[in-house]
């Protein structure tokens, strides 16, 4: 199997993972804003997300010669490594719950703020756990100031959401007064930010007007906690720090662990979303399995999103196995990419107040500083 051994190779994996993991949320957000039901989108996404893991396992996991201590992917499937397999599958379950939750959080809180808050929580909790699980191979004097910067970014992200919500409320109140004053005028194409918000609400599949801000933030923080646990679980699956494997049984390779991780992620996603077809949450429309099968509107984008996320997660784990999973959490810089897509594609913060813009810039600057510091803490794992 192919093993990333150099620090440079690990950082390259992180950079590519960052680009992929920052882009797929934008695709799912685009589909929701065009009215495609989240249940349909996530079912499509889950299929190709698993496909990416299979491709990685049967290519990188089978490259080169197999040995007793470093068996290839297929050879490991028949070994007595179920304690590690269970850790990998637990990681897949919490990741699936987190991704599923963010689908709804994007609608309530916005793509940019959701990604910043969830990623920051992931770093604050998950990176700390990984630091100790990795036997402190990362430089603590660099790592933890980076974690503190992520924590500040969480607070700024909440402030951005609160300020932007107040801006949107003011825009809608202005629209209501304008409509009452000019009720007899001919309708014109929406040009202002307030008209944009109304038209967006009419198209989208998840209706958010009139809903409490706390709903969106609660979903976001739940997702962040789920995300903070999947990487430590994967770390335990590949490195067996708790010595759960029998003597002589080799550790799971990153590719075998990622396979089991993705299978559990797929199963929980399919089960929950089939239930949500008939019993939707947050007042989403009901649908059926037949309607899903026949819904080809935007299916290509949903399938592409699953591939991007799958390959992004795989690259993150490959880099983490080489340089330490704490440093690999630098891929949580993905909100920098997501915020770009949120502003360019979706008009987030369209004509917002100066206060909102100031908070947004501060949040992103703090986030960039945190990512740079975290990546600088990279260590090197002994692969023997």
Characterization of the model:
Residues 173-192 are annotated as: Disordered. The chain crosses the membrane at residues 6-30, 42-61, 81-98, 105-130, 142-161, 212-234, 254-278, 299-319, 325-345, 357-376. It is a multi-pass membrane protein. Keywords: ATP-binding, Membrane, Nucleotide-binding, Transmembrane, Transmembrane helix, Transport. The two termini are 14 Å apart. The protein has helices spanning 7-33, 38-59, 73-76, 82-109, 111-133, 140-181, 193-203, 213-239, 254-278, 289-293, 299-323, 325-328, 334-346, 354-376. Helix 4 crosses helix 9 (254-278). It has 14 helices and no strands. The chain is mainly alpha-helical and 384 residues long. Mean pLDDT is 84; it is low at 183-191. It has one domain (16-66, 97-180, 191-376).
């Amino acid at each position: 199997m192919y093993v990333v051994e150099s620090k440079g190779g690990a950082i390259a994996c992180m950079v590519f993972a960052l680009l992929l993991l920052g882009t797929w949320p934008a695709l799912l957000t685009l589909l929701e804003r065009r009215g495609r039901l989240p249940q349909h989108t996530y079912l499509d996404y889950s299929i190709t997300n698993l496909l990416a893991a299979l491709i990685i396992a049967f290519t990188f996991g089978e490259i080169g010669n197999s040995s007793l201590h470093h068996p290839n992917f297929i050879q490991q499937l028949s070994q007595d490594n179920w304690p590690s397999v269970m850790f990998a599958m637990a990681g897949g379950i919490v990741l699936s719950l987190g991704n599923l939750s963010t689908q709804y959080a994007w609608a309530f809180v916005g793509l940019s703020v959701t990604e910043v808050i969830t990623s920051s929580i992931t770093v604050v909790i998950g990176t700390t756990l990984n630091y100790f699980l990795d036997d402190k191979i990362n430089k603590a004097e660099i790592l933890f100031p980076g974690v503190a910067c992520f924590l500040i970014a969480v607070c700024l992200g909440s402030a951005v959401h609160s300020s932007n919500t107040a801006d949107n409320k003011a825009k809608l109140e202005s629209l209501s007064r304008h409509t009452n004053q000019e009720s007899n005028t001919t309708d014109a194409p929406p040009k202002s930010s307030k008209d944009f918000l109304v038209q967006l609400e009419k198209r989208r599949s998840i209706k958010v007007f009139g809903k409490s801000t706390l709903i969106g933030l609660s979903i976001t923080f739940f997702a962040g906690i789920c995300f903070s646990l999947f990487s430590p679980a994967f770390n335990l699956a590949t490195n067996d720090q708790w010595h759960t494997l029998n003597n002589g049984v080799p550790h799971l390779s990153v590719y075998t662990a990622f396979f089991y991780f993705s299978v559990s992620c797929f199963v929980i996603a399919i089960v929950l979303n089939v239930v949500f077809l008939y019993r939707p949450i947050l007042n989403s429309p009901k649908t059926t399995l037949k309607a899903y099968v026949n819904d080809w509107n935007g299916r290509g984008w949903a399938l592409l999103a699953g591939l991007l996320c799958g390959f992004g997660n795989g690259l993150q784990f490959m880099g983490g196995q080489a340089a330490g999973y704490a440093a690999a959490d630098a891929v949580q810089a993905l909100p920098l990419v997501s915020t770009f897509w949120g502003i360019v594609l979706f008009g987030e913060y369209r004509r917002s107040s100066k206060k909102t813009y100031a908070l947004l810039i501060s949040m992103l600057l703090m986030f960039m500083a945190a990512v740079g510091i975290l990546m600088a803490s990279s260590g090197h794992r002994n692969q023997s």
